[in-house]
Amino acid sequence: MTAPVPLLPPPEERLTRWGRLRDRMLLDPDWHRIIRWLAPLVITALAAVLRLTNLAHPHVLAFDETYYVKDAWSLWTLGYEGTWGDGANQDFLTGDTSALTGAGSFVVHPPLGKWIIALGMGVFGAGNSAAWRLTVALIGTATVLLVYLVAKALTRSVVAASIAGLLLAIDGLSIVMSRIALLDGILTFFILLGFLFILYDRRRSLPLVERVERDSPDPLWGPVIWRRPWVVAAGFALGAACAVKWSGLYALAGLGLYLVITDALARRRAGVLLWPTDAAFRQGPVSFLLLVPAALLTYLASWTGWLLTAGGYDRQFSANPLAALWKYHESIYGFHVGLSTGHAYASPAWQWPFLIRPTAVWVGDDQSCGTDHCISVVSSVPNPLIWYAGVAAAIFLLYRFVRGLIRRQPMPWTYAIPLVGLAVTYVPWLLYPQRTIFQFYTVVMMPFLVLALVLALREIAGRRYEPLHRRQSGERTVIVFLVVTVLVSAFYYPVWIGMNVPYEFWLIHNWMPTWV
After folding, report:
1. What whole-number distance in Å separates Cα of residue 257 and Cα of residue 274?
2. Tens digits of residue pLDDT in 258-292
3. Which residues contact 137 (CB under 8 A, 6 or more apart)?
4. What is the pTM of this model?
């Protein structure tokens, strides 16, 4: 006789306690609808509170605000970046902008980010430090919502997306770069927006390719798809990224390559015989025409003020404004390639994963706080747990990805997005070891480190088909990690927003001597 097959317990009994709670809430239509809308709203609101509270402090032009804020006001008033006279920084704090002259100033970043900074000052005035940081803080808040949407598109899970949004909302580097009027937080928003649009295109376009298998067995060619509005939208977003900083070009190139590769893989799955050629030489040029012209148009539009006025730097080089703009870009490129001026907080890209030299954006004077020694600091150090765990998670995803390629195993396609994101935001900086760069540039990497971390946490938490005890221990591990991470953010928050604290309290936040 055949041994009786043991009956499995009902599904609800095989779930962990968290799994039963999750299913009751997410499988009920009413609860699912509430959570689907409430989760991103609550997380975005938390991000807004952390970024907007006491935004005017410190009332100084902190770090590179001395360039971008004054250039933003110049764009608002002149249409191009003018030159400022002596004493401009101190006068600017009182709203006195009389030191601005009409002579064009040589600046090395495109105008869009500074136009965005200028919006707050245009409404509330130049001398209001909250005004010149307002739009950056709002964009930083919106970036948290974007990472939620990207994680939701990747995982189809409200829980995973909520964890991703929460981690970015409470991360120190993201908070600091949302509270200081620099360009990198704005750059992060547009790059992440481009990734989101590409994900939406994948969801819309790949089924059209895979339909070939049903319509025609062993087809020679796949369909050439022109109607891809999300690719055009991604072009506009990535063009805006390039119009904030040229490093957005790496994201544009990387996502263009990602489109070709994923189109090729979709054609292979659909049984297209000439799938590499089909993707590269038939669909590839179409994707290029959908993506790149939109990006170029957006980039050129950001220079409208310079093009339509006469006083900008190098504007009179040629009667043809585009020729003059090209000459200006040659000068900017020469500056970026040759930049090697020493700086106390300079950090080459090889140091970034180890978090060796975070940037102190602002250090205030000692003030009385009931003890003999006090200090006020705005430090761009990220939450160390999020940072180091994110780096470890990215290495794990890369290992799984490479191992799958070698063994020709199917791999979760979700791994590709954080890996591509990190490739285009980190790897190019390794090519310029002598250039003066800073750890806070990694704010552009943070969303992708968070996405990698969330995917790794899902692996740790376990899947439904795994043994119950394995999932219970995995879920407990994830919950403990998240609780400790939130506590670490609460511990670091005073040194992210420049609170006046005892000197000894500040010292215990410096986990390495190089953090001082």
Report:
1. 18
2. 999 999 988 888 888 888 898 899 999 999 999 99
3. 48, 51, 52, 55, 178, 179
4. 0.92
